[in-house]
């Protein structure tokens, strides 16, 4: 394949560019800031995220959507909150047969639409969704990583797998788009829950009981929205849930720890708080609409949204573990 585009030059977008550049002639990495694009093209380094990592020479930074016109595949590596605006901006300059790939693990609130649902409003439903236990900081170094992708269009999924696959980056195709996307949302709530517990210094026995409870409830939630229970056992399910619930590299886990320690978080300065709150409110509403009782969702909702003291919220959770 000649050209692949990536919208979003953050940690994940840059890491994906580094991987994909090994398989295609040119990777166009779109960003809004002209000075960052000039710096990347001049020095071959994204100083904002990976100041010590030399990028592949065929990665071209751009601030113009016109450079993406000839790209057969475009990855959307942007926050869920920016999805709708970005899609409206590229609607007129992207060919109908271009494959769009979503990497965001978020949900639009209050519409309760996944990123795939939002893409389908502007383009066809042949998009591909990517999710897995993936930290961008490891991906950019070409360390061993596995991810899942899913699409209603099997040919599109195969093409995306081809541009992503390297000896170190493995890709497994699933046929459950709904399950894959919802797993990415629910795991963030589990990560916050386990972060809260760690911030409170809850003992490890109890924390892993909470993690187990979260895994079981994820299966119920996925089935209730039309996904496959087996998806929860995949890399995008179990793998991602455990990784983000236990690693200090996880932003959602860190967010939970701060709340568990009763530390006031500056919401305006932290995009992750905004994303996390949307996911919590959306998942709470989804559970109510599908008549699913999730103690983990309720626990996180109580602490983050209702501002109930963590110890009181945990006592309620533990009574129903």
From TrEMBL:
InterPro entries: 6-PGluconate_DH-like_C_sf, 6PGD_dom2, G3P_DH_NAD-dep, G3P_DH_NAD-dep_C, G3P_DH_NAD-dep_N, NAD(P)-bd_dom_sf. One of its GO terms (cellular component) is cytosol. Its EC number is 1.1.1.94. The active site is at 187 (proton acceptor). Gene3D superfamilies: N-(1-d-carboxylethyl)-l-norvaline Dehydrogenase, domain 2, NAD(P)-binding Rossmann-like Domain. It is an enzyme of class 1 (oxidoreductase). Keywords: Cytoplasm, NAD, NADP, Nucleotide-binding, Oxidoreductase. It comes from the Archaea. One of its GO terms (molecular function) is glycerol-3-phosphate dehydrogenase [NAD(P)+] activity. Residues 176-314 form the Glycerol-3-phosphate dehydrogenase NAD-dependent C-terminal domain. It catalyses: sn-glycerol 3-phosphate + NAD(+) = dihydroxyacetone phosphate + NADH + H(+); sn-glycerol 3-phosphate + NADP(+) = dihydroxyacetone phosphate + NADPH + H(+). Residues 3-156 form the Glycerol-3-phosphate dehydrogenase NAD-dependent N-terminal domain. NADPH binds at residues 11, 32-33, 49, 105, 136, 251, 273, 275. Substrate binds at residues 105, 251-252. The keyword Nucleotide-binding applies. Catalyzes the reduction of the glycolytic intermediate dihydroxyacetone phosphate (DHAP) to sn-glycerol 3-phosphate (G3P). PANTHER family: GLYCEROL-3-PHOSPHATE DEHYDROGENASE (PTHR11728), GLYCEROL-3-PHOSPHATE DEHYDROGENASE [NAD(+)] 2, CHLOROPLASTIC (PTHR11728:SF1). Belongs to the NAD-dependent glycerol-3-phosphate dehydrogenase family. This is Glycerol-3-phosphate dehydrogenase [NAD(P)+]. It comes from Methanobrevibacter olleyae. The gene is gpsA.
